[in-house]
Each structure stands twice: as structure tokens, then as C-alpha cells.
Amino acid sequence: VSNTFDIKKHIDDLNLKLEEDYLFFLDSTVARFWFKNQKAKHQILDSLNENNYGSWIDSNDKDIYRINYNHNRYGDAIWWANDGILISPNFWQSNRVLKGMHGYRNESMDNHTAFITNKKKYVSSIGNIIDMVEVNKILRNIVKMENI
């Protein structure tokens, strides 16, 4: 984590009323908003549209990350923090500032992990990116082989 962003204070400065104009849920790296009226929607979208802390999830992002739902349970609009930015305070850590966080976009190099195995069947060249779904399949196969 290189910086924090106080979204609550930022939104409070817009002179909107929580519950009357909007609802929100602040995760560590994602802010979810539900709008009660168009005024709140436009003010919040515009106010968080241009900054160095993050950006709104658009339809392209929804397709890439397979989160293009036909409902708004996860928000009418979702703002995603840039690499190294922590939404603080948030509903998980309160005001605690952490040294590291997960939940950034796939492109974030700090978001990547290592998968190491001595099973030759799964050895590939260094630097290959394996989707988490594929890692799950590999681990399930390794566990099956170990139990034989």
C-alpha cells in the first residue's frame, strides 16, 4: 500500500445525504454505490471520475472480469482503487492502514502469486500466467495422485 483515499470524506463534501440520496459499501479496494436519485448518481460519479486513486468499473471491465450481472446487488456503480491505493477508512479495517492488500486488477504485478510444484507434468517456463480456475484443476489433480 503506497497511499490511502478517504472516499467517505470525499463523498461527505458533496452535501448529499446517506440513505436519502445514496448507499455505499467501502471495501479495501472497491467502493460500491447504490443511488436513490439522479442528482446523487451524477454528483458521485463525476466527483470520483477524475483522480489518481482509482476509476469506475465500466462495461468492458465487467466483461473482462466476468462480473456483468443483470442485477445491482453489488452496486449500481463500482469504483475500483488503483494499484497500491487503500480505501481508508473502510468497513473491514476501519482506519488501520495496512502495508499490503489484495483485490487489485489482474494487471497489477503486486497482485500476482507464485505456483510451485515438483510434479513434472505441471512444470512450465517461468513467467507463464495461469488462471485461478486452472490452478484449482491442477491442485485437485495433484491431491488425487497423492491419495493413490
- The counted number of beta strands is 6
Structural class determined from secondary elements? alpha+beta
Placed side by side, the strands forming the largest sheet appear as 2-3-5-4
Estimate the strand proportion: 15-25%
Task: Give the rounded overall mean pLDDT.
Answer: 84
Uncertain ranges: none
As a whole number of angstroms, the C-alpha radius of gyration is 19 Å
Helix count from the secondary structure assignment: 4
Helix content: 25-40%
Shape: elongated
Distance between the terminal alpha carbons, to the nearest Å? 44 Å
What's a quick, concise take on this entry?
The chain is an alpha+beta fold and about 150 residues long.
What does this molecule look like?
The strands form two sheets. A four-stranded antiparallel β-sheet has the order 2-3-5-4. The protein has a two-stranded parallel sheet with strand order 1-6. It has helices at residues 7-12, 38-47, 59-64, 132-146; strands spanning 3-5, 22-26, 30-35, 54-56, 77-81, 85-87. Helices cover 25% and strands 17% of the residues. A hairpin with a 3-residue loop joins strand 2 and strand 3 (30-35). It has 148 residues and is α+β, with helices and mostly antiparallel strands.
